[in-house]
Give the backbone structure.
Amino acid sequence: MSALLHVDAVTVDYGGFKALDGFSLDLAQGETRVVIGPNGAGKSTLCDTIIGRVRPTHGAIRFMGEDISRLSEPAIVARGICRKFQAPGVLPSLTVQDNMALAARTDRRWWKALSHGIPAAERAFVAETLDRVGLAARAGTPAGELSHGEKQWLEIGMVLATRAQVILLDEPTAGMGPAETRATAELVRELGTSRTVLVIDHDMSFVEQLEAPVTVMHQGRLLASGTLDEVRADREVAAVYLGHTA
Amino acid sequence: MPDFLQSRGFSRTLPLVLFALAAAIPFGLSDYDTNLVARFLAMGIVALGIVLTWGHGGILSLGQGVFFGLGGYAIAMHIKLADLAEGEIPDFMQWSGRTALPFWWEPFHSPVFALAAALVGPALVAALFAWAVFHRRVSGTYFALITQALALAFATLIISRQDVTGGFNGLTNFTSIFGFLFAGPGMASALYWITLGALALSWLGLRWLLGSRFGTVLRAARDGENRVRFLGYDPVPFKVAAFALAAMLSGLGGALFTLNAGVISPALIGVAPSIEMVVWVAIGGRTSLGGAIFGALAVNLARDAISSSFPEGWLYVMGALFILVVTLFPQGLAGLLSSRSGKRGENPA
């Protein structure tokens, strides 16, 4: 298996503090990977670096062989990488449908936006994606009026609607109850059949339900990787987590 | 509120009824009052532009007076030149001891150039400025402060170059435009209708634009610029286009104001007038086109009434009104109407 996304010895140095410290990670096409680690381990910085919000001090991010670590944010999205943020990043004054249509648009140049409605070619896709995240009935509601869980699903849907091959989900179950978490796990497992997914989460019951390989980060470095049971049995992992919860 | 006020038919007929009423004003009012309303309608065009940038784009400009001034001066320069006999230069230039017209005044002999400059000039300046600033991801308060500094610099520049700009007195004493005498019969009404027509067209155009996908992206960038960027959009050109169009409307309003008022001067375009323009829109409702026109009309009418009886009182009244509206009704008077009727989302009309 050749890597679709290759994080190559990336260091992000915030004036002496290394949020990522020579971190490497390979994501194969169609793989679902979970990244866990205590607070400050560098999980969100990893996402920030992949999508171009933060530039690596050393190292490179390669997508299909191309170094994307110096590209603009929209250019990285155009290559096929999109991220769901930790705090839901839906657009509150737009309706659920407009949020989805915004993400689904294939031509994002400003003069192509000078007409009304959703382009005919994208209408079915928007409806289908709304349906996929269970929000078809809420299409006309302003996104700001959705429940927290619904906002998370809407944003997952928007990330999907960009047709990204690689999807980064930053704490998709933050603020969800057990039933919503189960539904989200179901959704992410289903995504894993067609896309490459990188999930960051704290919630161990959610991570269990994903049944995916796990990478553990600590202080910007790789601590362990393997199945969830393997990393759970790892002494270093236990020490890091116990050290933080004690 | 009665149901008929919220019906679709009502919201479609209301603008038509208001337009018809406004069109009848020259038949009912004196030339003096018609002219006064025409000036306020020109201000309404400026307010429409602020709805686009501030209300829907989240870009607060405290420098719209600059573009208003560019439009006003462009048309005023043409009028000053058109009034001259062959080989003459404008009166204020002679008083300042100049003997020749500055080279950059020359093209304003042409009425077509002057009209184009009044519209394209502000848009071009605004686009270049906005591109430079937004590209560096400067926004919010910093952007507002830069635009305010721009207004101050522009007014100061005009005052300091009295020999070529007319200085503090501005450009005035107009005789005719395109061969029509300003004092001629029917001129007040004609200028009024032209201004009303421009306002109506601007309103229709913006209604279309705000309802388009462009409007959606603009509002999206206002609410979550990062989310929009990480969905693959570059928000900069959307914001630049909106800002340039608002500047063009400001220039159009400035040109029409100058024609109706017979004067353009630094006192009409500096920091204080630029802030007042934002106040009209804050009071009327920053996301509502109709609200902004209403705000511009109502505040200017109130100003006219109050400042003629208490010349010093006006600034206090306006300040109090502004604080009251912003703290109690952040969506302005238009927001008050739509929240009562329980309407959802934003109604750009």
Q: What stands out?
A: Residues 3-245 of chain A form a domain with the Rossmann fold fold (CATH 3.40.50.300). The interface with chain B takes residues 51, 53, 72-74, 77-78, 82-83, 85, 89-95, 98-99, 101-103, 105, 108-110, 113-117, 141-142, 158, 162 of chain A (CB under 8 Å). Chain A has a mean pLDDT of 90.
